[in-house]
Design a protein that fits this description.
alpha/beta
């Protein structure tokens, strides 16, 4: 710094007397040092330091160049005073301005921070990140407790959380409702626990709990009721009695309880009667046992075993059977066909447990018996032919105690029955027929078949089909279930007498009688839950429908159609069928109608002068 520059910094002009003013400048230096020490920010500290350094340098240069000071004595007191005041004023102004600038900087930074927080809070609210939003607005309120924006933000958060809670509660309530409707009680209870945790006073809690309680109760009742139905179908009367007592404990006023108790009592009584009858048959057979083969004794024992399977009955049956020639499969012959090739009239073929893949043509006089349904199984490919065939003129055939079924599926227009009686005669006892592509059993072309304790299920056409002039089937205590068409179907000259049998859940009708001019009889049977009718009599056939229980069929109970159809309907119970209970075409001949009970059917209970749609069109 030059001398003229130093003089100018100190506020003088060259030639002015400066020395007398040095004390004032030293005071200014001390004041600047104090300002540096007490500066509120680094910016102010640097500014004061720069002012002090400039003053120090100017004083150093002036003191060094004392020789250049004017010698004349002047009076500078006023000037010095003015200058000092100016310097001090400038310094004070500089300090004030620096403080004001720092305050403005702080306010700007605070404003920027507030704007950032507001933006962050807005985004957090929009994305429903409530904890983050709450933290932001809490910080804003710390900055400005009176902030309207912060208070509004807190209000929006509260409203959003409440809306979200309501949405979640609505979702949970809907989930619980769906679980209840689906009868998924555990899922419904778990969802209710979530609802209760969120809102112990939720308006739906009590209602949902009551519905779950009621639903569980109904399910228990339904389970017992279904078990009772199974027991009735299987004729397990002891099990039915247990179900009745369980139902009474659950629901003493259940509408079906009196009927179930009566059925169980009747069933147990029937079971005891059968035991007595079986013992009588056994005693007669025992009296005929003279060490020789006796078909009469064997028939008596078969009746006894059908009524009550006791070890002593089986032992006597085996003993008397052994008097005839017995061909055993697989002990003596590897296949049933091989044994049949060697058989003579009155010979017995006894088949052990196992699956035998064969298509058999039965010769006259053969007695073919397995180890029991489900134990001895004869199976043939559906496309190759019937598993068992009784041909024309072949008589005195007996098939017992085995399962006959087809393997695979045939979709041809003409399909082989599982068992066929084609013009011959046969007796089937305790035989199960399953999984046929066509009919389960077909009796055709004048064939005759007797059936005792036969079960036909899951066949592609009818369970039992009887057709062709002179074809006839007599059925006792048998079942026809879940066949795609009818349970039993007699047409085109075929006739049937069926007693004490069941037709359940078939794709069309339980029993169809439609052979023109042929008399058929359905007695003491149950036809239930079929997709169309329980019993149908039509096409100028003659039918006797007596003492049956017809219930739960989709399109109606007992229906008689067509002119010249003749029918007797008596002592039937017809309940809970769809559309109608009993309907008789006004053109049909109703020769007898008495003691029938029709109730609980959809639509008409009894219409004995019905006009069917095709007639009315």
């Amino acid at each position: 710094m030059t001398y003229p520059e130093a003089v100018q910094v100190l506020g003088f002009r060259e030639g002015d007397v400066i020395a007398p003013h040095f004390p004032a400048f030293r005071q200014a230096e001390q004041r600047l040092a104090e300002l540096i020490e007490g500066a509120e920010s680094e910016v102010l500290r640097v500014s004061y330091w720069q002012e002090l350094a400039l003053l120090n340098e100017a004083l150093r240069v002036v003191e060094t160049e004392k020789s250049r000071h004017p010698s004349g004595r002047r009076t500078w007191t006023a000037v010095l005073l003015v200058f000092s005041l100016l310097v001090i004023g400038a310094l004070v102004y500089a300090g004030w301005r620096a403080n004001q600038w720092a305050a403005e900087q702080r306010q700007a930074e605070l404003d920027q921070r507030v704007q950032r927080l507001l933006a962050t809070g807005t985004i957090a609210v929009e994305k429903r990140r409530w904890p983050e939003a709450e933290e932001v607005y809490a910080e804003l309120l710390q900055i400005d407790p009176d902030s309207t924006l912060a208070k509004d933000g807190k209000k929006v958060i509260a409203e959003g959380k409440e809306e979200e809670r309501r949405q979640q509660m609505g979702f949970l309530a809907g989930t619980a409702q769906a679980a209840i409707e689906a009868r998924s009680w555990k899922s419904a209870e778990d969802t209710l626990a979530e609802i209760e945790e969120m809102d112990p006073r939720h308006e739906k809690l009590a209602e949902f709990r009551e519905r779950i309680k009621e639903g569980r109760f109904k399910d228990r009742v339904l389970k017992v009721r279904e078990a009772a139905e199974d027991a009735i179908r299987e004729e397990q009367w002891g099990e039915l009695a247990k179900c009745s007592e369980e139902l009474a404990a659950l629901d003493p006023g259940h509408v079906d309880l009196p009927q179930l108790r009566k059925l169980s009592e009747d069933g147990v009584r029937l079971m005891e009667e059968r035991k007595v009858q079986a013992r009588q048959q056994y005693q007669k057979a025992l009296a005929l046992d003279d060490g020789e083969y006796s078909e009469e004794a064997l028939d008596l024992l078969r009746d006894a075993l059908r009524l009550a399977r006791e070890p002593e009955y089986e032992a006597l049956y085996e003993k008397i059977s052994s008097h005839a020639r017995i061909l055993r499969v697989p002990e003596d012959y590897v296949t049933i066909g091989a044994a049949l090739a060697e058989v003579r009239p009155q010979d017995q073929v006894r088949v052990g447990e196992g699956v035998f893949v064969e298509s058999l043509i039965l010769p006259a006089g053969v007695d073919l018996e397995g180890a029991g349904p489900g134990k001895t199984i004869i199976e043939s490919p559906a496309e190759q032919g019937s598993a068992l065939l009784v041909g024309a003129g072949v008589k005195e055939i007996r098939v017992a105690s085995l399962t006959v079924r087809q393997a695979g599926i045939s979709l041809d227009e003409e399909r082989f029955p599982v068992m066929t009686v084609d013009g011959g005669e046969a007796i089937f006892e305790d035989v199960w027929v399953e999984n046929g592509s066509g009919h389960g059993i077909a009796v055709i072309n004048g064939g005759k078949a007797g059936m005792q304790s036969v079960r036909v299920s899951k066949c592609g056409w009818d369970g039992l089909a009887i057709y062709g002039e002179g074809s006839r089937a007599t059925v006792m205590e048998s079942r026809f279930d879940q066949n795609l068409q009818h349970g039993v179907d007699a047409w085109n000259g075929g006739g049937v007498t069926v007693r004490k049998s069941r037709f359940t859940s078939n794709g069309l009708t339980g029993v169809v009688l439609m052979s023109s001019g042929v008399l058929s009889r359905v007695e003491s049977c149950t036809s239930e839950t079929n997709r169309e009718l329980g019993v149908s009599v039509a096409n100028q056939s003659a039918g006797e429908v007596v003492g049956n229980e017809v219930l739960g069929n989709l399109l109606g109970g007992i229906v008689v159609k067509d002119a010249q159809t003749r029918v007797e309907i008596a002592n039937n119970t017809v309940t809970k069928n769809g559309k109608a209970g009993i309907m008789v075409d006004r053109k049909a001949s109703l020769n007898r109608f008495e003691n029938n009970r029709s109730s609980g059917n959809d639509g008409v209970q009894e219409e004995l002068k019905a006009v069917f749609e095709e007639e009315g069109e």
